């Protein structure tokens, strides 16, 4: 295209040059013709006037002749004294080009003639209109011819280029078709394109297409690498940098369930048993540190097994794949985990760290079925002792009773705890902000096995709720707490007791609790019952009956984990709780989170208007405590304020 534009420019320049040169030579010819005409006219006029005297001339005849003639444009006759005898003017407008030539060359000039007697003087100019018209026509012919000579190559070249482009386009299209067909049958894009068919279509294009093939292959590799990196980042857990559940599912389907090779191994599931308790009592930052510590232990121990993979399935569960590892060897892995978890438990003053369930797998085993079995193994491990592990074998699955075996074992453990009253009470104070606020100490419970080993609290309470044994556990906790308070004679101290929503909504439990509190009415006035916001929302009428009963016996109510649900303040005006405890998620990084600060300030203002005090839990730094104080909350609780201690 650039060459074609250059050709047009050259042809245009040539046309202009030829037109200028041709016009110049035509102008010279015009000047020469006018000169010849003037010399001839001078000769004729001189000859005529020399052969006559003034008296012999007939002015009227000459005037009539000159008037009807186109030879002269100007003719003036004078006598001996120089007086005009007659003056004939027949001016005419010359064509434009002739005017330009006349202005440049001054071709047409006045001429003079005098006879021998000197009594006739003539001044005249010849008429060059015919020559000027011829000049103009010649110029147009030159311009037209030179223009055609300049235009014809451009038109021809344009047609030739169009035809060439169509041929090139057709050739390239055919080469591309061959290129695509060849690479569809080849796994690699960088295959050399040197087939005879391509050589026939366009020999010079083959090297370029080979370079294009290599370029596309490199780009294909770059895109695959970038996609893999993006996918890896999308499938990565933020806290531990391990692969998440999606990556685990993809790995299992590719390398175990749908693999063509024969494979076997062990799958271990590790559950962080104290994550929820740590998040609530110590804060989410400590919870993240706890999860990362567990992940580091798992990665360190699993790293000794060839080809092992570790994934974080959800907030509390990890999955470890041990390829080509029999269950006998996996037992040693469970023992090592238990040992390291126990060591970490002692260093961090925890009731437990994590439990492990282990099962074997083989090629083609569906993932859903395997996860169901390993979850059952996890339940069995949790029901043993702190940081325990359990291996689920195929022989344990006879008669298809495995699905309920974990639940049965848990029911047995819970019944043993209730019958033997193996509970250990600790308390964590809420520090009041301001002298007018009366805060209290929250009583927390730890459960133990027959061997006096601590059970994972969160798992124990979750299984009690699942097995509909939460009411018995709540009764055990309340009875044990009241006996402890009575025996220690805490007359001036207030205590908080957690009650599950299912118990609070149970009429039999409410009747039992009212009678139990009336039996120790002096202690009842020192108690604050904590129920979760979400639990209260499940049955507002039953929640109101429970709260009314608590107020009737002189005790008070705290709505804990406030802010997780979508409860309106009309709900609180109807229920009339005494305190609300903001969920620990709102105090996490509070010094930097302006949205949480605004929300907590709004909740405090609205709660105070209806006479409800507001506490913050999960406070774990000086900065968070300072922000809570500036937001006018009534009390703070967390590991920064006080760690749980024995009653």
Textual characterization of the structure:
- The chain is α/β, with parallel strands linked by helices.
- The chain folds into 4 domains: 2-136, no CATH class; 196-233; 237-400, Alpha-Beta Plaits (2-Layer Sandwich); 418-646, EAL domain (TIM Barrel, Alpha-Beta Barrel).
- Helices cover 55% and strands 16% of the residues.
- The protein contains 22 helices and 19 strands.
- The strands form 3 sheets. Strands 11-18-17-16-15-14-13-12-10-19 form a 10-stranded mixed sheet.
- The two termini are 93 Å apart.
Distance between termini? 93 Å
CATH topology of the largest domain: TIM Barrel
Tally the beta strands. 19
Low-confidence stretches: 187-191, 398-403
Structural class: alpha/beta
Average per-residue pLDDT, rounded, comes to 81
CATH architecture heading of the largest domain: Alpha-Beta Barrel
- Tell me the number of structural domains: 4
Q: What's the story with the biggest beta sheet?
A: 10 strands, mixed
CATH class of the largest domain: Alpha Beta
Oligomer: single chain
Give the CA-based shape: elongated
The CATH homologous superfamily name of the largest domain equals EAL domain
Quickly count the helices: 22
Radius of gyration: 55 Å
Strand content: 15-25%
Q: Numbering strands along the chain, what is their spatial order in the largest sheet?
A: 11-18-17-16-15-14-13-12-10-19
Helix content: 55-70%
Furnish the topology, listing elements before pairings.
Elements: H1 2-50, H2 59-68, E1 72-78, E2 84-89, H3 96-105, E3 111-114, E4 121-126, H4 129-184, H5 196-201, H6 206-234, H7 245-257, E5 264-272, H8 275-281, H9 284-302, E6 309-312, E7 317-323, H10 327-348, E8 354-362, H11 367-382, E9 389-392, H12 402-420, E10 423-429, E11 431-432, E12 441-447, H13 457-466, H14 470-488, E13 495-498, H15 501-504, H16 507-519, H17 521-524, E14 527-532, H18 533-537, H19 540-552, E15 556-562, H20 569-575, E16 579-582, H21 594-609, E17 613-616, H22 622-630, E18 635-636, E19 645-646
Parallel strand pairs: 8-9, 12-13, 13-14, 14-15, 15-16, 16-17, 17-18
Antiparallel strand pairs: 1-2, 1-4, 3-4, 5-7, 5-8, 6-7, 10-12, 10-19, 11-18
